[in-house]
Amino acid sequence: MTRLGFLIARSLRREAPLAALSVTQSDLLSDLAGKSVALVGNARALSQGEAGAEIDAHDVVIRINRAPMPSAHSHGTRTDWLALATSLPAAERARISPGRILWMSHKRKRLDWQSAQSPGFYLHPLADYEALKAHLGAQPTTGVMLIDMLARSTLARLDLYGFDFFASLSLSGSRSADKVPHDFAAEAALVGNLIAQDSRIIRN
């Protein structure tokens, strides 16, 4: 696809040509088979801990959006996969240096050409987004979309870091829970149920 074709497809919300730029979900998840995965959320409380080396010791490290990393001591340094629901300025892309981009947002008009053309690019299906939204009764966060998807893989272990469902707010902004379009109680319940049913998922 040319850049012009991409811009036209994005503007007109033509899902098929955009999806053709993406690896399939099954291929994405097959890359995690038998591996340990660290999914790093953006809760402020994580910055008070010492999990950095532990995070980086995983086979795959996945971070979210602008991926704030105030210190290597608390957050580690590696970013193998970066899951986005927002635009990523060039300086942030260079800082994070992700090995792979996952576009999780249903807002296709925000998707940029550089991300769509990057190696191993993944576009999260709209049907998955809508199903999770219906289950939660609210727009799902990028984090809970990832947890929902990763639980369907054959990974060996999924460690969740920086997930307190907005109890300590977010390192990526100053908004309070009532200012964002998410139901954190519903998300906490969903993740709690997954953890109870799947011993591979551990909330740190």
TrEMBL record:
Entry's Gene Ontology molecular function annotations: glycosyltransferase activity
Coiled coil: none
EC number(s) per entry: 2.4.-.-
Enzyme type, top EC level: transferase
Membrane topology: Single-pass membrane protein
Localization per Swiss-Prot or TrEMBL: Endomembrane system; Membrane
Keywords, comma-separated and alphabetical: Glycoprotein, Glycosyltransferase, Membrane, Transferase, Transmembrane, Transmembrane helix
Pfam families, per database record: Glyco_transf_29
Identification of the protein by name: Glycosyltransferase family 29 protein
Provenance organism: Thioclava arctica
